[in-house]
Design brief:
Distance between the termini: 34 Å
Strand order of the largest sheet: 1-2
Structural class: mainly alpha
Radius of gyration: 20 Å
Number of strands: 2
Number of helices: 15
């Protein structure tokens, strides 16, 4: 990586990080509990959008399967952070060695990352050799496959009943720390040789091959790195949701995250964070409007589905 690219990547990272730190500091000092939760949601969602951007933005291949890694990371973190007494009640058929484990925030995030990397490595070698359309369809198949496993592995995940009892470890500052690290990784990857090689395959795979770029290797590296971030994001998200089921890591989260990436600009790291912020603000405002509101003395009825309609219009 050239010094100019390195300086540009670090400077952009510092600027965005300072803005985010000021936001979190203000919310912690003067914000309500509800506002703190909204900001934490935004920070964790931005981690997922950045993880998606690392692969989609640099490769040009749309992925519908990245929420599979989020689900893997979330369930992994949940299983190693839930207190043993709750496991004994809720996970009666789980392996005995799992019942005695209770880890903190950082170890659980690292384990969630590792689990997602293993899954990505197992399927990524074959997928990296597919055409762009084939790759995109394979990611959709991966999402459906992982969802089916999570929804039916009752002894470990409790299936459709969902899992609960997860400690609330994802504070705004913890979420900020995770986002700052991921933001730096995303900016450095985009400016470094691996990212530049992958961008070359996005613009013209044939020309990239002609100058010695291994398209499959470039895609595989980005795929695994992206999965690691999504797994870490899922592990952090689990410790903010506290209870969830497999449907929370399925199509709704897939398309909302893609929407944030599209709105912010899929090739821009900073744009990914901006897109997450725009959709977070719009969604929060419209979620209140869905319950009905008054304008100039006129009472407007409830408007269910307004959030999805406006997000679709923004795309």
């Amino acid at each position: 990586m050239s010094r100019a690219r390195l300086r540009g990547a670090v400077a952009g990272w510092l600027l965005v990080s300072v803005i985010l730190a000021v936001l979190v500091g203000w919310v912690q000092a003067a914000g309500t509990a509800q506002l703190q939760r909204v900001v934490t949601d935004f920070l964790l969602t931005a981690v997922l959008v950045l993880g998606l951007q690392i692969f989609v933005g640099n490769s040009g291949i749309v992925s519908f399967g990245h929420m599979a890694f989020v689900g893997v990371g979330a369930y992994t973190a949940a299983l190693v952070t839930i207190p043993p007494p709750i496991k004994e009640q809720a996970l009666t058929a789980s392996p005995g060695w799992l019942d005695a484990i209770q880890l903190g925030f950082v170890p659980s995030v690292l384990l969630g990352m590792l689990a997602a990397v293993i899954v990505a490595a197992l399927v990524g070698g074959a997928m990296a050799r597919m055409s762009e359309l084939g790759f995109a369809m394979a990611t959709l198949a991966l999402l459906v496959l992982v969802h089916a496993i999570l929804a039916n592995w009752d002894s470990v995940t409790r299936g459709g009943y969902g899992i609960y009892g997860i400690p609330n470890n994802a504070t705004p500052w913890a979420a900020l720390a995770g986002l700052v690290v991921v933001l730096l990784v995303a900016r450095l990857y985009r400016a470094a040789q691996p990212g530049l090689r992958l961008q070359a395959t996005r613009e013209d795979p044939v020309s990239a091959r002609s100058v010695g770029v291994n398209v499959a290797v470039s895609r595989f590296g980005s795929w695994v790195l992206s999965a690691a971030i999504m797994g870490a994001g899922g592990a952090m998200l689990a410790q903010q949701l506290l209870a969830f089921d497999p449907d929370q890591f399925y199509f709704t989260l897939t398309f909302s995250t893609l929407a944030m990436l599209v709105v912010g600009g899929r090739e821009s790291v900073t744009g990914a964070v901006a897109g997450a912020a725009v959709i977070a603000v719009v969604s929060e405002v419209l979620r209140r409007a869905e319950r009905g509101f008054s304008v100039a003395g006129m009472e407007l009825p409830e408007l269910p589905g307004l959030v999805q309609l406006v997000v679709a219009a923004l795309i």
